[in-house]
Specification:
The chain has helices spanning 13-24, 26-60, 147-157, 260-285, 301-315, 346-365, 378-390, 395-454; strands at residues 71-77, 80-84, 91-99, 105-108, 121-127, 133-139, 161-168, 171-178, 187-191, 200-204, 209-213, 216-220, 224-229, 232-236, 250-258, 287-288, 293-294, 334-336, 342-344. The chain has 461 residues and is of the alpha+beta class. It has three domains: 1-70 and 259-441; 71-100 and 208-258, no CATH class; 105-204, Sandwich (Immunoglobulin-like), CATH 2.60.40. The strands form six sheets. It has a five-stranded antiparallel β-sheet with strand order 1-15-3-11-12, with no helix packed on it. A hairpin with a 2-residue loop joins β11 and β12. It is elongated and about 155 Å long.
Length: 461
């Protein structure tokens, strides 16, 4: 008699169908494994694309001339602080300050409170020379005027004069300050006779800065000076103490030099990004003969072409320059090593910058209308090539689109196969369920017959 399956049937339908479906599903499993492999390839290409993009960012950091003309300013002495921008004139500059630029200030006589009556009338504010009326303010037109009203109306006029109230021994003063330093930004104030409680006097006259650069006497309305030394902003910070003898100055020495640190860091970023890309490609395409295992992109010709193109750009030669121009990256200390990585000789790079930074800049940044791409600077040429590699229908995009198309096709094939397998499973279950019912019936009939025979009388001999 057949062993009964769980549930009372004569045949283990579930187990039998499950085993048959395992066999039937083998093509689907193989297709799923294949899709998983293709998906892994697509992910790997995404990693390469990201590394190429990072490399392009590093390349673009060396593509513009300003990368090679960053300057730094070092100051000794108390007269000034200084900052240098790209392209600043390099050298040493002696700066002497005779006086700082000052903004004009005026203050009123003290009154009891900010809301004490000061009378009514017009307050007129004019330019330094008195020819231009900046504002005519009606004070106390709706009652008796106060210092609070004067402050608010001056500030609302927005005329380059700021008003504030200050406490003075329990009383209040109105203080007016020019918004900008320099004699040209001074102002005049006159009040009608009706403003009996408003008396203003000058507490600090406006004055221009007086200074010299390398012995050349100069003046400025501002203490921040950007036109005395090209590319350098000087901020005058100290003048001689009051009562100093005529001719007394506060002195500083400003040294402006090429900022080799910044451009060397940009070069190192370029080398590091190249090595990261190269290492990623090596790891994704390698084959281990000991374990006989291949990396996910082993045998991918697209990746090898990418690696060859990038390496060719780095090891190439720049043409089209003048005699004596730099033509190879190795001349500035960037060279390929035996293991395929790039290395930066920082001392050699710094020496090349010190010798002639414009030649180093030209090696990377030269643009040309020539049809010969090698006439372009290295960074310009690389950036253009990387644009092509990363762009729509570029080397990477075309391969990724092909992989994505394969995945879509396999997804459709799997859906079709799963539908067929579902029908197959349904058919098998139906067939074996019917067989199970038939076997069960036969077993029941056999059991009944056996029972009947057992009940028949027996006869002796």
């Amino acid at each position: 008699m057949a062993t009964s399956a769980i549930g009372g049937g004569a045949i283990d339908v579930n187990g039998l169908v499950s085993q048959l479906m395992t066999v039937e599903s083998q093509p689907l499993v193989a297709l799923q494994q294949k899709e998983s492999s293709v998906q892994a390839q697509l992910t790997a290409f995404g990693q390469i694309q990201s590394a190429v993009s990072s490399f392009q960012d590093a390349v673009n950091g060396l593509r513009v001339g300003s990368a090679f003309s960053s300057a730094t300013a070092t100051v000794s002495g108390d007269a000034v602080t200084a900052t240098a921008s790209a392209g600043a004139s390099t050298g040493s500059f002696a700066v002497s300050v005779t006086q700082l630029a000052r903004a004009q200030s005026m203050a009123s006589a003290p009154v009891a409170t900010a809301d004490t009556s000061i009378g009514s009338g017009n307050l007129t504010i004019k330019s330094a020379d008195g020819t231009t009326v900046l504002a005519t303010l009606s004070i106390g037109s709706s009652g008796s005027g106060t210092l609070s009203e004067v402050r608010d109306k001056i500030n609302a006029a927005n005329i380059g004069v700021r008003a504030s109230l200050v406490n003075d021994g329990g009383k209040v003063r109105l203080v007016l300050n020019a918004s900008k330093t320099g004699a040209a930004n001074a102002f005049q104030v006159s009040a009608d006779a009706g403003l009996t409680g408003l008396t203003l006097s000058q507490t600090q006259p406006a004055q221009d800065a007086s200074y010299s650069v390398n012995g050349l006497s100069l003046t400025s309305a501002s203490n921040v000076i950007s036109d005395a030394v090209p590319g350098v902003t000087l901020t005058l910070t100290k003048q001689p103490p009051a009562g100093s003898p005529p001719g007394t100055t506060v002195d500083s020495e400003v040294d402006v030099a090429l900022d080799t640190t910044a451009v060397t860091a940009a070069a190192q970023k370029f080398v590091t990004a190249y090595n990261s890309l190269n290492t990623l490609i090596v790891n994704l395409t390698k084959y281990d003969p000991n374990t006989k295992t291949a990396a996910v992109l082993n045998g991918e010709s697209v990746v090898r072409r990418l690696q060859d193109q990038v390496r060719g750009l780095v090891t190439g030669t720049k043409t089209g320059g003048a005699p004596g121009d730099l033509t190879r990256l190795s001349q500035v200390g960037i060279s390929i090593q035996k293991d395929g990585t790039l290395a930066l000789d920082t001392a050699k790079f710094s020496d090349a910058l010190a010798a002639d930074s414009s030649k180093v800049s030209a090696l990377f940044t030269t643009t040309s209308t020539s049809t010969n791409s090698s006439d372009q600077g290295f960074a310009v040429r690389m950036s253009q090539q990387l644009d092509s590699i990363l762009g729509p229908d570029g080397l990477l995009d075309a391969r990724q689109q092909g992989l994505q198309s394969s995945i879509r096709d396999m997804d459709k094939q799997q859906a079709d196969m799963q539908a067929r397998l579902a029908l197959t499973e349904q058919r098998l279950r139906s067939q074996y369920a019917a067989l199970d019912a038939l076997v069960t019936t036969r077993e029941q009939q056999s059991a009944a017959l056996a029972n009947a025979l057992a009940g028949l009388p027996t006869t002796g001999k």
